[in-house]
Amino acid sequence: MNKHIRAFVVPVIAVVVFLLFWEWLVWFNGWPRFKMAAPSDLPPAFERHWPLFLSMGWQTLWRTVVGLFLAVVFGTLLGMIMGFSRTMRDALYPLLVGFNAIPKATVVPIVALMFVGQHDFNTVLLAFMISFFPIAVSVSIGLSTLEPEYRDILRSLGASQATIFWKIALPKTLPEFFGALKVAVTLAFIGTNLMEIVSPHGRGLGALFDSGRTNSDFPLMFAVLIALAFLGIVLYYFVVALEKIFAGWAERAPG
Amino acid sequence: MQNLIEIKGVKHAYQTDAGPLPVLDGLEIAVPEGGFVAVVGPSGCGKSTLTRLIAGLMKPDHGEVWLHGEKVKGPRSTVGMAFQNPVLLEWRTILKNVLLPLEIVPSKLTRKQAEERARFLLSLVGLEGFEDKRPSELSGGMRQRASLCRALIHQPDVLILDEPFGALDAFTREDLWQTMHRVKEREPFTGVLITHDLRESIFLADQVVVLSGRPARTQYVLEVPSRGPRTLDDLYTPVAAEQLNILRHQIQIAQGRSPAEEGAE
Ligand SMILES: Nc1ncnc2c1ncn2[C@@H]1O[C@H](COP(=O)(O)OP(=O)(O)OP(=O)(O)O)[C@@H](O)[C@H]1O
Ligand SMILES: [Mg+2]
How far apart are the C-alpha atoms of A9 and A88, rounded to whole Å? Predict the structure, then answer.
């Protein structure tokens, strides 16, 4: 009981202290609204733009999820190809590393120019491009490091490659896969926002942020940041919940 | 009597970057039905390769492997295998791990019968009450016991054991030796045991094959006269001491060290 109170009360106190400190900092320095926002400015900002927050938040959410979904499908396929074939791994790995080394912020204007006006497509594409890499790498490593005995156990009974993949290789890579997915979900979110902020006439929370920026509306900008953090947390814990269901076995009992 | 396992003039080489690496060279082994052969030999001489050939996971370059009067051309469901690494699937319970082969091999058992059989095997090796545990909750010796049950669930006629007790401590290992005898009484099989432990070989097997260093030939075959269950005391008789002496001597030859040199040290 005591432990539960502590687990709940301590973080709440920490958040409250943080907000009070922030409020005090703004008040103490006398920063005006076009320079900085205080926590007390946020509820009015949310209230004023509530319908926008809902519609823009939805835009950001669905694009991130679609981009992430494509990244999972493509990344898993790529990982399977690289995990099963030595030759393909040697061929694709340098390409993949090179592609990943490019800071995605530089890709944003290129994509935006290439597919002018197709804002949904652009955003999903960027979310996808930025997030498939960790998935591909984790799946390929998971598959290629499968100990030969695992294969032999089933192969000696005459099992097909497909059976070995479904019964052993795939479930065995799930912990690595979810580890990568947690990274990917954050990355995809960054991708979506990059595109939304940079694109002219963009939509989504990124665009809302940008409109706050052009008007020096700090309360709006900070409210968007809070909304983004909220969405990011929701997505992250959604993945954590999936991980608990499908790869919960990988968690060692404490101690 | 017909031999259940027959290895005739088997030669095999691996293709490596540095050219072919001959591993087995003219291997001759015959195991009668219900027999138990132990294979000992220097490290890296090709013992695991031999198990893969018997299991049909590889084909030898030359020579033939026969099981049950049939030439081995590929994997067969009448084989059970266990390795030094128990390779249990962490996401399955012990019971589900044991049942795994029945998901591959066609079986006449109903689901319920299969489960009963798995429970029976687990109780035979002393894992009663652990059916619903995860592998990570078991000790190394217990995992090895579970792995043994999995190798037996589909009633294989050939059981191939590649250093199954190699990673266990001495007491656990001796425990498992006795378990093996108990299992073999209830679930007859023809066994091939790869081991580094000479005491293990004479305790479990009725025939010990010594392989020469790589490329391995059949260098020496020791017939162990006592059949069936044994007690640990049997390892401390003059007969056992004599057998161990012979085997140690043969291993030294296989390693390319002459016993005389050894004595002079
Ligand atoms: N797939 C492979 N490709 C190339 N060489 C291999 C391969 N598998 C094994 N070898 C080599 O063949 C030799 C015999 O290997 P094997 O695993 O059969 O030996 P072993 O007697 O089981 O060894 P240990 O006592 O260490 O278990 C070793 O030198 C090994 O390096
Ligand atoms: Mg070996």
Answer: 53
